[in-house]
């Protein structure tokens, strides 16, 4: 009897690999399932809470805390690349620039984590927020957060802005 794994391997090798990556999630699904959770993890990793007892600092204390921040920073950076894929990119102009800014912001966040610098992680978190807000201002103005039910339709539900003439 042939093991099931061998059959799957043979079937997978028989077909040709696609020339280009194929998007599985649309932009809203990518936001809700990938980017927003990573941004929330990153933002929740460092901060301050003020209550009746005073100021409570939130800082990564363990290797696991730093690893969670590092993983979130990678997801943020790579999400910018995912937003530039065919099938997701809304245009070749501003969409690509804003998605590229997300990549660079994620790299900034990653650098702060790699230096184990909680203050820089906090500052990079603000840059992540601005990258998100700048894109939402142009492409999803009604969206508070992709997962917030009070938000308006996501970017996939809106009419696409005019293409700037570039190839996709």
Question: How are the elements arranged and paired?
Answer:
Elements: H1 4-14, H2 27-44, E1 47-51, E2 54-58, H3 63-83, H4 94-114, H5 118-139
Antiparallel strand pairs: 1-2
Your description of this structure?
By secondary structure, the protein is mainly α. The C terminus is likely disordered. Strands 1-2 form a two-stranded antiparallel ribbon. The chain is 55% helix and 6% strand. The chain is globular and about 55 Å long. It is built from five helices and two strands. The protein starts with a helix and ends in a 29-residue tail after the last helix.
Give the strand content. Answer: 5-15%
Question: Average pLDDT across residues?
Answer: 85
Q: What is the approximate shape?
A: globular
The count of β-strands is: 2
Arrangement of strands in the largest sheet: 1-2
Quick rundown:
The protein has 168 residues and is mainly alpha-helical.
Tag the structure with descriptive keywords.
168 residues; mainly alpha; two-stranded antiparallel ribbon; 5 helices; 2 strands; 55% helix; globular; disordered C terminus
